Amino acid sequence: MSAKKKTLAVLTGGGDVPGLNPAIKMVVRRAVDEGWRVLGFRRGWAGPLRYNHDDPASWGKWVIELDTQMVRKIDRTGGTILHTSRTRPGSVRPDHLPEFLNSDDFPVNEDGTLDTTQKVLQTLEQLNIDVLIPIGGDDTLGYGARIHKEGFPVVSIPKTMDNDVYGTDYCIGFSTAVTRSVEMITNLRTSVGSHERIGVVELFGRNSGETSLITAFCADVDRAIISEVPFDVEKLAHLLIEDKHRNPSHYAMMTISEGAYPLGGQVLETGEADAYGHKKLGGIGYLVGQKIKEITGENIIYQQLGYLMRSGAPDALDRIVTANFGTLAVNLATRGITGRMVALREGRYTHVAADYSTRGLKRVDVSEFYDVDEYRPKISHVQGKPMFLY
User: Fold this and answer.
1) Which helix (H) or strand (E) holds 212?
2) Vertex 77, ends 388 and 220: CA angle to 5°?
3) 43-57, 100-114, 268-282: least confidently modelled range
4) pLDDT band of 168, cuts 50, 70, 90
5) DSSP-based three-state secondary structure for 371
6) What does the alpha-carbon distance between residue 211 and residue 255 come to, in Å, rounded to a whole number?
7) According to the model, what pLDDT value does residue 276 have?
8) Average of per-residue pLDDT values in the chain
9) Which end of the chain is more exposed for a tag (fewer CB within 10 A), N or C?
10) Phi, psi for 135 (deg, rounded to 5)
11) pTM higher than 0.90, yes or no?
12) What residues contact residue 257 under an 8 Å CB cut-off, 6+ apart?
């Protein structure tokens, strides 16, 4: 009698980034090569939470089977074919609980939300899944570590455009986000220069200013505001005026992280917090631009790049890293090495504990790579430093 075919499942959670589809493709190809069956949960952690084993309609809506033909061309596009969400099964509002579940069956957290982890584990058991590969940032991987602690085999893949998952030098999506940002800033110089204005470009980056820092460095903008360092808007305005006057084309450019905040102020957040406690960021660049105009009398061109940073097909670096992350994740899973997160450390592929991302914060090394007085990158010592400075 032949051995029962093992099953691997994959899901993508949190914000989409270029590189997710190549990761999914490689996970499927490697797993199939190893003789494993592959399932894909749709919409992140909402998939195993909302899958109803007694409802045939759940198959296809919340979970699908993946094969090599299905994923053959997906690496050519951005985003994720599995879709995504910010669902957190460990903290579900009672009014968000699937109708087929009874709230009385789940523990209640201190904030009144429900811990539906047992439902997720039940789904994994019902579908005969042997190993789960979650792809995501701190939040998605943090819950993946929770699943591992509950006794289920997990191998995680780090993804975030901000490149801020602790324990790895690189996360899926970062290179493409910087590449897109540099390209669009280069193009935006046409209008900013033609009208002799000050360009304010707002970039994604909640807690880490690495996208602003590295983009500013690569695009050679005049000033960069990052999430880690509160700024003086009047000082910034005067620096930009000096930059504009020194420029033969009579304009200036700056970047700013969406999570940046002024001295004595707070991060600009709006709307209702998601399941992980995050409110929507965005708009700080507009407010700074208006203040700069008020202080200097100069006209501003404000551009919030936002989702454009993480749209479209991945660049070459995101293709090769994601393919290798997928390969490593499956190699670990099929060898029975679980409770791990794949990573790049000091330029080499490796793996760390699944809960490593919860053990610290990955932020810009301000003392090494940022001039807090001049509000710009300070890249002078790179020997022995990681490829992407942080």
Assistant:
1) helix 210-219
2) 35
3) 268-282
4) very high
5) strand
6) 9
7) 47
8) 92
9) N
10) -115, 120
11) yes
12) 202, 203, 204, 205, 208, 209, 211, 212, 225, 226, 227, 284
3-state secondary structure of 11: strand
Amino acid at 294: E
Q: Would strands 131-136 and 155-158 be described as parallel, antiparallel, or unpaired? A: parallel
Q: Is 302 exposed, middle or buried (0-12, 13-18, 19+ CB in 10 A)?
A: buried
Domains delineated in the chain = 7-172+314-358 (3.40.50.450), 175-311+365-377 (3.40.50.460)
Exposure of 159 by Cβ count < 10 A (0-12 exposed, 13-18 middle, 19+ buried)? buried
Q: What angle separates helix 233-246 from helix 284-296, to the nearest 10 degrees?
A: 70
Residue-wise over 32-58: b if at least 16 C-beta within 10 A, else e? beeebbbbbbbbbbbbbbbbbeeeeeb
DSSP state of 172: B
Catalytic residues: 162
Helices (H), 280-335: 284-296, 316-334
By DSSP bridging, strand 7-12 and strand 37-41 are parallel
Nearest to 254 by CA among 228, 297, 288: 288
Q: How does pLDDT run across 15-65, given as a tens digit for each residue? A: 999 999 999 999 999 999 999 999 999 999 999 999 999 999 999 999 999
pLDDT of residue 368: 87
pLDDT (average), residues 258-278: 66
Distance between CA atoms of residues 117 and 385, nearest Å: 40
Q: Give how far Cα 6 sits from Cα of 3, 48, 63, 110, Å.
A: 9, 18, 17, 38
The number of angstroms, rounded, from the C-alpha of 189 to the middle of its chain's C-alpha atoms is 27
Instruction: Classify residue 383 as exposed, middle or buried by CB count within 10 Å of its CB (0-12, 13-18, 19+).
Output: exposed
If you average pLDDT over residues 300-311, what whole number do you get? Answer: 92
Token pair of 376, please? 């710009």
- How many angstroms separate the first and last alpha carbons of the chain? 53
Beta strand 370-371 with 376-377: parallel, antiparallel or unpaired?
antiparallel
Closest to 203 measured CA to CA, from 173, 177, 223: 177
Buried b / exposed e over 325-351, threshold 16 CB at 10 Å, is bbbbbbebbbeeebbbbbbbeeeeeeb
Query: Per the structure block, which two tokens stand in for 203?
Result: 């970039």
Residue 264: the pLDDT is 84
pLDDT score, position 275: 53
